[in-house]
Amino acid sequence: MTIQQLYEKIGGNYEQAVRVMKKDKLIDKYVRKLKDSDAGEQLAWAGEAMDAAKLFESAHAMKGVCANLGLDALAIAADEITEEFRSGNSRKLTDAEVREKVEALLTRLRNTVKGIEEYEAGV
């Protein structure tokens, strides 16, 4: 599987990743780092604790990484959480709705990681 085929499989925006990273080698490097990142664990913990600062911080970091990698669906889902907890913004969602959004983001992240693992295994 090529990096472009991985992007097709996981619903990523390969063209965006190329615009930012310029080379497949760099895209490959950072996609693999996403798989090994603890960002999902941090987000899960923050969502369970409803720690507003940690929710903002972990979702904001995930949004940036995913946007640069052309993982638009992940970036958009992370952005929704980021904006919910951005300083100065009023909360619009209940805690239960936030937890649902966190879980949906984590499910999408797990599916992306599964695709990356298959890419690494040469499936």
Please provide a brief summary of the model:
This protein is mostly helical and 123 residues long. The chain has helices spanning 3-10, 14-21, 24-36, 39-49, 52-68, 72-85, 95-121.
Helix and strand content put the structural class at mainly alpha
- Separation of termini? 7 Å
Mean pLDDT: 95
* N-to-C order of helices and strands: HHHHHHH
Measured by DSSP, the beta-strand proportion falls in: under 5%
CATH level-1 class? Mainly Alpha
Count the E strands: 0
Low-confidence stretches: none
Number of helices: 7
Sheet having the most strands: none
Estimate nothing, just give the exact number of structural domains: 1
* Helix share bin: over 70%
Name given to the CATH architecture: Up-down Bundle
Using only C-alpha atoms, the radius of gyration works out to 15 Å
CATH fold-level assignment? Four Helix Bundle (Hemerythrin (Met), subunit A)
The rough form would be described as elongated
Features:
Four Helix Bundle (Hemerythrin (Met), subunit A), mainly alpha, 7 helices, 123 residues, 80% helix
Explain how this protein is built.
With about 120 residues, this protein is mostly helical. It has a single domain, classed as Up-down Bundle (Four Helix Bundle (Hemerythrin (Met), subunit A)), CATH 1.20.120. It has seven helices and no strands. It is elongated. The model has no long low-confidence stretch (mean pLDDT about 95).
SSE diagram, text form:
Layout: H1 3-10, H2 14-21, H3 24-36, H4 39-49, H5 52-68, H6 72-85, H7 95-121
Helix pairs in contact: 1-7, 3-7, 4-5, 4-7, 5-6, 6-7
